[in-house]
Design brief:
It contains 13 helices and 14 strands. α2 links the parallel β1 and β2. It has a single domain, classed as NAD(P)-binding Rossmann-like Domain (Rossmann fold, 3-Layer(aba) Sandwich), CATH 3.40.50. The strands form four sheets. Strands 1, 2, 3, 4, 5, 6, 8 and 12 form an eight-stranded parallel sheet that branches. 31% of the residues lie in helices and 12% in strands. α2 crosses α8, α3 crosses α4 and α4 runs parallel beside α5. Pfam families: DUF1731 (PF08338), Epimerase (PF01370). Belongs to the NAD(P)-dependent epimerase/dehydratase family. SDR39U1 subfamily. It comes from Streptomyces bohaiensis.
């Protein structure tokens, strides 16, 4: 359906102007990289937030957000704009795509990109539809007919909704919400698709690199078995819930998302103000790997996976940059790009005290490679972490 990814057309904002007392040049070494999948897990909040986006990861904090909130000056986040955006009324529609999680970081960027190229995007919402474009669906699965009706006439479905992994402390009740919001919503869509005479041909059903658990220094690709731990278990159930749709002939793709580098939201969006304030630093010993991806490359990869044809991959596909780096290197790059020192490491005991069980994932390591994307011919615009951080800081964010 969709075209192959295209280079973005993004305005070039002026570099940030140092404020009083701000260091004038690059500084030290600080982590960053959005919450690591193994270092932090990105947020995916309920409803129309990208539950899967940022993979299960959360949000590492090098200092209180309040202390940094007024220090996030610099280029204003600018919407991702792909070449070809600005479609006029004369631009023919090129397909109908339903999207859950359409108001989240990834969902909103994907919707803008598709609509700009003439696609008819249908946001699926839990609440009563508030505008003509929206269609209500039932994540509980109680109303199968309603969900099937919501998908009528769609060529593809992109499912991104789920509760934010790093939004709250991991109580037993919140862990249940993290799991249920993913597994039940996916099962509801799978059941609806399986009942349809003419279902969407392609379903991008979100997942995350949390599937692999803590991989240490060992690089893994899509052939690796599932890991251990709460997030790995959630990802396995999440993907398994889509099986009825695959059995009914729908091409199901599981984009296993890493840490999305963006200023406009997600785990990384919370890190930029901290580093801008000069309060950033490595997490724990900083040797854990972070598997990141720029927002531009993530949207381009989703569109690449929406394409149909003999070479279009199905099943699990890692959405991570080809060059995962350690938290220590992320810290250094963040300090260099933002021109700030990175003198405030967060010791592991402090993280465990602040985050509880979630700290285990924040301090874990994930060295995940996008083997299937590369084999299918996808080209990354921002393969390295410095490329991704600079793109986010200079405007490639929603």
């Amino acid at each position: 359906m969709a075209d192959s990814p295209r280079d973005p057309v993004v305005p070039s904002p002026s570099p940030p102007t140092p404020g009083p007392g701000d260091p004038a040049g690059p500084a030290g070494s600080s982590p960053e990289e959005s919450s690591p999948e193994g270092a932090a897990t990105a947020s995916a909040a309920p409803e129309e937030r990208d539950g899967a986006a940022d993979g299960p990861t959360g949000t590492p904090t090098g200092a209180p957000a309040e202390a940094a909130s007024d220090a996030a000056s610099g280029p204003d986040p600018t919407p991702v704009v792909f070449a070809g955006d600005g479609a006029s009324e004369e631009t023919p529609l090129r397909g109908r795509v339903a999207v859950t999680g359409s108001s989240g970081l990834i969902g909103s960027a994907l919707v803008r990109s598709l609509r700009a190229d003439g696609y008819h995007v249908v946001p699926l919402v839990r609440h009563e539809a508030s505008n003509p474009d929206e269609v209500q669906w039932d994540p509980s699965g109680a109303d199968v007919a309603q969900n099937a009706t919501a998908l009528l006439g769609c060529d593809a479905l992109v499912h991104l909704a789920g509760a934010g992994v790093g939004d709250h402390r991991w109580t037993a009740a919140y862990k249940e919400e993290i799991r249920d919001s993913r597994v039940f919503g996916t099962a509801a869509l799978a059941e609806a698709l399986a009942t349809m005479d003419a279902p969407p041909r392609t379903w991008l059903c979100g997942s995350a690199v949390g599937f692999y658990g803590d991989t240490g220094d060992r690089p893994v690709d899509e052939t690796a078995p599932p890991g251990e731990g709460f997030l790995a278990d959630v990802c396995q159930e999440w993907e398994a819930a889509a099986l009825p749709a695959a059995a009914a002939g729908v091409r199901v793709v599981h984009p296993r998302t890493g840490l999305v580098v963006a200023r406009g939201g997600g785990a990384w969006g919370r890190l930029f103000p901290i580093f801008r304030a000069g309060l950033g630093g490595r997490l724990g010993n900083g040797r854990q790997y972070w598997s990141h991806i720029s927002l531009h490359d993530h949207i381009a990869a989703l569109r690449f996976l929406l394409a149909e044809g003999a070479s279009a991959p199905g099943g699990p596909v890692n959405l991570t940059a080809p060059e995962p780096v350690t938290n220590r290197e992320v810290t250094r790059v963040m300090g260099q790009v933002l021109g700030r020192p990175t003198l405030f490491p967060v010791p592991a005991p402090a993280l465990r005290l602040a985050l509880g069980e979630f700290a285990t994932d924040v301090l874990g390591s994930q060295r995940v490679l996008p083997r299937r994307l590369l084999d299918a011919g996808f080209t990354f615009v921002h393969p390295g972490v410095e490329d991704a951080v600079r793109a986010a800081w200079e405007g490639d964010a929603p």
